[in-house]
Design a protein that fits this description.
Layout (H helix, E strand, L loop, with lengths): L14 H9 L2 H11 L5 H8 L3 H13 L3 E5 L6 E5 L1 H4 L2 H14 L57
Antiparallel strand pairs: 1-2
């Protein structure tokens, strides 16, 4: 579990809001994406992202402070490298979900884009879909948000046939 330094939460009881507070800006998500792709050095992130050095430095520091990245000295001890923590690696599903959403919604049909594949088969990674215990796809209408202090609504009693 992350123990971030002093953060003013947008919505302290909402896991989505807390996650967005920790890693929700564009540059942080792209740094995490690049880390999952094996990038470790400041210069690699800078080259990949084309972001200003001060912004990159700030986001790397925040991701280290928030426990998403670990800063480790390189072999020569001259510069640091960045490695995903277990919490950072746990963001793979989020990044994959964003990628797949982008593939479906941010490109015109037939427009070229990068593809994440299974290296053993060369096939695209399967689409993420939440499933019910039955194996059927879970839809938003089949889920219910229960906020802190609220109770799960009571199901109406079913009448037995007479």
């Amino acid at each position: 579990m992350l123990q971030p330094i002093e953060i003013e939460w947008t919505d302290s009881e909402c896991p989505v809001a807390r996650a967005a507070d920790l890693v929700g800006d564009k540059w942080s998500l792209l740094i995490i994406r690049d880390s999952l792709d094996g990038k470790r050095r400041f210069s690699e992130f800078e080259r990949s992202l084309g972001v200003a050095k001060n912004i990159l430095s700030d986001r790397l520091r925040l991701l280290v402070d928030r426990g998403v990245l670990t800063r480790i000295p390189n072999d020569r001890g001259t510069r640091s490298e960045y490695e995903l923590s277990s919490a950072g690696r746990d963001l793979f599903t989020l990044i994959l979900s964003l990628r797949q959403w982008g593939e479906r919604n941010a490109f015109r049909p037939g427009e070229a884009h990068s593809t994440l594949v299974d290296p053993a088969t060369g096939e695209p990674v399967p689409q993420l879909r939440p499933l019910l215990d039955s194996g059927a796809e879970l839809t938003p209408e089949q889920s219910l948000l229960v906020k802190v202090g609220e109770s799960l609504p009571q199901k109406p009693a079913t009448q037995e046939p007479s």
